[in-house]
């Protein structure tokens, strides 16, 4: 069983129960501006939902307001669009977890879902980046520990 943490809700982020991995959940509201001429959410807009969820996981959800990780850059995105999202009043969930942690990078996996459908599955490779030297860097122990709370190897 996977524990879920939620962002943008009244539910506080729960501590990880035992050794159970968890997923981060971000609620993305569908806006009229997100629609394309076919009247469904534009594929590029879905990448924005992933970006918002990624930033929430890595930066915004810290109780003390500090970033959970240092400088990072996206090295790769992969997206499988499985079903169109139509305009609706209910938000979709973007569930995010870590599938691999390496010395200088990690892999995030995502699903854009609701209770009935999976709309997209995606993955991003994120690389630690030193903004001052403009070069890749190794992940530190605190970053690795934080990411490890969301680690679902092999998913």
Automatic annotation (TrEMBL):
Pfam families in UniProt: 4HBT_2
GO molecular function: fatty acyl-CoA hydrolase activity
Coiled coil ranges: none
Domain of life from the UniProt record: Bacteria
Protein name as annotated: Thioesterase
Highest classification ranks of the organism: Bacteria, Bacillati, Actinomycetota, Actinomycetes, Streptosporangiales
């Amino acid at each position: 069983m996977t524990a879920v943490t939620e962002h943008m809700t009244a539910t506080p982020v729960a501590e990880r129960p035992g050794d159970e991995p968890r997923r981060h959940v971000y609620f993305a509201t569908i806006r009229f501006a997100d629609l394309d001429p076919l009247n469904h959410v534009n594929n590029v807009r879905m990448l924005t939902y992933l970006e918002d969820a990624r930033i929430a996981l890595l930066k915004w959800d810290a109780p003390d307001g500090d970033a959970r990780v240092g400088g990072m850059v996206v090295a790769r995105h992969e997206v499988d669009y499985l079903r169109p999202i139509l305009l609706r009043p209910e938000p979709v969930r973007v569930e995010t977890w870590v599938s691999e942690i390496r010395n200088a990078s990690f892999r995030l996996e995502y699903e854009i879902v609701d209770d009935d459908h999976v709309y997209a599955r995606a993955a991003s490779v994120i690389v630690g980046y030193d903004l001052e030297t403009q070069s890749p860097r190794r992940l530190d122990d605190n970053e690795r520990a934080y990411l490890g709370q969301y680690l679902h190897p092999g998913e």
